[in-house]
Amino acid sequence: MDGFLLAFKQKGISSNHVVQQTKRLLSLKKVGHLGTLDPMAEGLLVLAVNRATRFSSFFLESDKRYEAEVSFGTKTDTDDAMGEVIESSSTIPKESDIKQELNKFLGESQQNPPFFSALKHKGKPLYKYAREGEFISKPPRKINIYSINNFSYFNNSCRFLVHCSKGTYIRSIARDLGDNLGSKGHLSALKRVMQGEFDVEKSKIPSELNLEEMVSIESAFQFFKEIRLKEEETKIFSNGGKLETVNQENDYYRIYDSGKKFLGLGSITDNQLALKRLV
Q1: Of residues 2, 38, 97, 179, which has the active-site annotation?
Q2: Is 38 among the residues known to form the active site?
Q3: Residues 180 and 78 in one domain
């Protein structure tokens, strides 16, 4: 009963609603999601079940892929279609200009997060301040846009597939793209299609999820290399001690005992293996 479920979050509901619905339908004690989706968005929402919640942080760091739609002519206070229009423009951008401006987002950059976000100020989410009419600015954050593909343009809106680093707000890209083109813009549709190795094609709405399709903690980290420990090494590792290694890359690893039992994850730094998470 420990592992990951691939849920499909539908438009108009919160990520927490999906979590609570899944807990109720499958009679689970502990469920958490690995990165929120705004109510307007749809797509992949990875759920960690029971002991798998201990491993959530490894996936919160993962990159993501989204199908996005940006509509031009209006800017909203939330930077998406859920907000109130605060600015408008009659300037209609050309397709060639949109492509050129959109490609400027590729690579590393500093991004200003939206006022309506889950980022916190004095322990309180920014969106709660914004709903009360107080707009708190957070310092720009470094993001990385790895690729932008499948571009199309129709009815004063563009669509594209974006592969980005953690912490990237697609709403902010929509806002900045509209501003840079002088036509204003907001995010009108968003679908998360991948998170790390998890694919939306294997996701299901909560009422269709079942525990037989749960991804085990071990298989969820197949992209990490494995290390097999001897009996004495297993004791040291499991108790938080460090082990000397030779010619191993600095990275995370799946750790097994001599009987091929999966123990959890470890990391190597400067030829020393240290415990990160036990199953």
Answers
A1: 38
A2: yes
A3: yes
